[in-house]
Amino acid sequence: MKVELIPVIEISNYGQNIKMPDKGPYWENSDEWEKYNHLSNVKAGFSDNLKPYLKASSLYKIDEISDNDLLKVIQNEIEIQQTDENRGIEDLVCAFSGGYILRIDDENVYFPQCCGDLADLNEWENLTIGKTKQFYPGHPFPRVTENEDKICFDFINIEIQENFVPPPLFNAVEVEKSELVFAIAEVKKELNFFADRLKFINQTKKLNIANIEKRLIWGKEE
């Protein structure tokens, strides 16, 4: 079994005065939503080459986002995270929205849900040390149990009765704990490279954001 965790960032640009598709959800009407998202992103200042992980989705692989588009994401994030005090980059204390797609044997099994972010890698890592009852990478989230050396994700008997977006392919899946450990190690390599990119953009564009990689990947100021 091949287990992967795919790090993705959510990029959405509603409110660009572009008519939304009449029908949803996006995975059943992908052509219309893909066009809408693309036009909205371009109008918001992103490049024509920005492509989602899954057609019509608003999730983008971190290693497929160009430096110019990543700069735009950072600038948007500064605006989004402003508090009532409006402290500029000092208010930048949350990780990028998105998270990790669970991919098993080349099948996309589980996508980041509402309130997920890149710092959720800690949630996945906790599963490998037996903290299954604390798994909360946004909502809804699967019920997770441990069976010997396997971890089971149940998408039906869940604590918060909300619909997964998009719906999971299976009612439940099991993965070897060792495979998940390996997947996490691979993701950390990607995040280290991504951190270097953030620091490079921060330096070359003179953004002056202290610890930019810790803020936007791990949600920590230091």
Which features does this protein show?
alpha+beta, three-stranded antiparallel β-sheet
Q: How would you explain this protein's 3D organization?
A:
The mean pLDDT is 96. The chain is globular, with a radius of gyration of 18 Å. It has one domain (3-218). Helices cover 32% and strands 17% of the residues. The strands form two sheets. The chain has a four-stranded antiparallel β-sheet, covered by helices on one side. Strands 5-6-7 form a three-stranded antiparallel β-sheet. It has 222 residues and is of the alpha+beta class. The protein has helices at 30-43, 67-80, 121-127, 177-204, 212-218, and strands at residues 3-10, 59-61, 98-104, 107-110, 143-147, 150-154, 172-176. The longest helix has 28 residues, at 177-204.
Distance, first to last CA: 37 Å
What's the total number of strands? Answer: 7
The string of secondary-structure elements, in order, is EHEHEEHEEEHH
Helix percentage: 25-40%
Give the strand order of the largest sheet, numbering strands 1, 2, ... along the chain.
Answer: 2-1-3-4
Tell me about the largest β-sheet. 4 strands, antiparallel
Secondary-structure class: alpha+beta
- What global shape is seen? globular
| Average pLDDT figure | 96
| Tally of individual domains | 1
Low-confidence stretches: none
SSE arrangement:
Layout: E1 3-10, H1 30-43, E2 59-61, H2 67-80, E3 98-104, E4 107-110, H3 121-127, E5 143-147, E6 150-154, E7 172-176, H4 177-204, H5 212-218
Antiparallel strand pairs: 1-2, 1-3, 3-4, 5-6, 6-7
Helix pairs in contact: 3-4, 4-5
